[in-house]
Amino acid sequence: MIKVVAFLKRKPGMAVEDFQKYWLTTHANVVKQMPGLRRYVQSHTLLSGYKKGNPVYDGTAELWYDNTDALRALVNTKEFQATQADEYNFIDRAATGQIFTEEHVIKDGPTPSNGVKNIEFVTHKPGMSIEAFQKHWKEIHGPLGASIPVVRRYVQSHTRLSAYKSGKAPAYDGVAITWFDDTQAMRVSATTPEYERTRADEPNFIAPGTLPLIITKEHVIAG
After folding, report:
1. Which residues make Cβ contacts (< 8 Å) with residue 197, sequence separation at least 6?
2. Which of 57, 70, 131, 218 could disulfide-link to 36, CB 3.0 to 4.6 Å?
3. Residue 101, exposed/middle/buried by CB under 10 A (0-12, 13-18, 19+)?
4. What CATH number does residue 63 fall under?
5. Phi-psi group of 183: left, alpha or beta (phi > 0 → left; psi -120 to 50 → alpha; rest → beta)
6. Which pLDDT value is given to residue 168?
7. DSSP string computed for 64-101
8. Which pTM was predicted?
9. For the chain, what is the domain count?
10. Structural domain for 36, as ranges
11. By C-alpha distance, which of 42, 84, 39, 29 is closest to 66?
């Protein structure tokens, strides 16, 4: 199974509320028609995330397909072309990107119905091979993050190794996704020793600097 993770910025001048409404209704109905689509989830950045300025992204779209053949077959369909054409109505295409990933469930739990979803965009430590980065992230860092008591579910989506074969670096090496009951639970998590151990491990495999992130509300559109 392949998961496409798209990170979106709204069209310049468009209100956040209008962007979210269009994405959730008009665009969602267009995307759902694409052949081979197994699951489709939108995650909208919380409106509270705009109080101090524009967040790094206005949300993410996650789309699951069986394999690369399904993706190749999709490109020339009228449904795919319709989806691409509709994006110009609400998305800033120049500031929007995507990565093709393989999903790893680190902590398998139910997603809270009214919870929040934290999405962090991860880049590997300079000089570290992608294989070593992925192994450390999944096998060493993953259990640390999963140990944080208030984390309800934890998924890592690793950029597929095929993305590196052309010599071009993808936008990100993956995304880390965690679900919480609410934003207060997220604040509580940051006070725990488990959280401190998790953050302390990050320099061992993640590039220096602050991880770009958005806090979102998840909407399951299909699947």
Report:
1. 144, 147
2. 70
3. buried
4. 3.30.70.100
5. alpha
6. 81
7. EES-HHHHHHHHTSHHHHHHHHHHTTTB-GGG-EEEEE
8. 0.95
9. 1
10. 2-222
11. 39
**Which tokens sit at 188?**
């509580």
Cα 220 to the chain's mean position, in Å? 14
Q: Which residues, other chains included, contact 37 with Cβ-Cβ below 8 Å and sequence gap of 6+?
A: 31, 63, 64, 65, 222, 223
pLDDT score recorded for residue 210: 86
* Token representation of residue 53: 């300025």
| Phi/psi at 172 (5° precision) | -145, 160
Packing angle, helices 78-87 and 68-75, rounded to 10: 80
Beta bridge partners of 91: 10
DSSP conformation class of 148: S
